[in-house]
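Review form for a predicted model. The reviewer records the input and the model, then writes brief findings.
Reviewer: anonymous (R2)
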Amino acid sequence: MTTAQKPKVYLIGTGGSISFVGDFRTDYINYSYRNRHLTIEQMLDNIPEALEFADVVPEQLVNVGSANILPSHWLQLARRINDIFALDAQAAGVAVTHGTATLEETAYFLNLTVKDPRPVVVTGAMRPPTGMGTDADINLLDCIRVAAAPHSAGRGVLTVLNNEIQAARDVTKSNSYRLETFRSGELGCLGYADSDEQVVFYRNPARTHTADSEFDVAGLEELPRVDIAYAYAGADGLVVNALADAGVGGIVAAGLGGGSSSPEFMAALKGARERGIPVVIATHTGNGRVMRTRRFVEDGYIAADNLAPKKARILLMLALTKTEDPGEIQRMMLEY
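Model under review:
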């Protein structure tokens, strides 16, 4: 009698609340103060159930809070995942642990730069593993389970927290402390890592991702600098002009409503555009598209479609590694 081989999942640790060690069981807000972390091996030891359904290979990439994650870490992580898939044909998928504050950004960057259809799944925790009622263990178990599931492939980079599987492009952190914080707005989740130990999907992401992406970070040492200017009532051109004077590679405007802002703010954006700086118009409403209005087209702005400002920034950073042509960048905004 032969025993079915368990799927092989690489588990990459980067730190975050899912790894922090607090001082006591109700330490839910100060646990990062002493900067003590469990290693990814210790985290895996906390969930021996994972070894029942997967052959897990843990490795520690970094071990930092999510506020310390930099674009250089994105490049390092993407290259490592691409190396895993290139060198190990037996790898079923990759699971990544991450701090929740920047988890959606890292996941979307990987969604654009991982060059393989096999699943990459990112998770974190809203309560540290030392806290009462922690979500660290179940989120990690679910992450490995989703990465091991064959039908997770081809759906782009995924996140799983609170049993919900989300698309990296759509997901955002929507609450500062609640466990059900990760949401995909009006689009909804893709499926569940459910209580009967099943991984179930109900829809697929429609935008280009992973193996079909045109972005290649293999030879990149750094990414172009792109910053976000946030619009609000009474916002003038001070921040936008300061960014342009600093020589940033691109600006994303987190606009009001459909993307427009005060006349002074928009005038500064137009000035930046006339200086040759690509300007992407997004909205900070949380849902809905920025459309290519007559004014936006005439002034040479790039519409972010329904990408959140943080996601539009990532796509613009990668786009600028290939082109500075506004038409081509606009195509990418609509495709990815």
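Findings: The first strand starts at residue 8 and ends at 15.
Further findings: The chain has nine helices and 14 strands.
Recommendation: see findings above.
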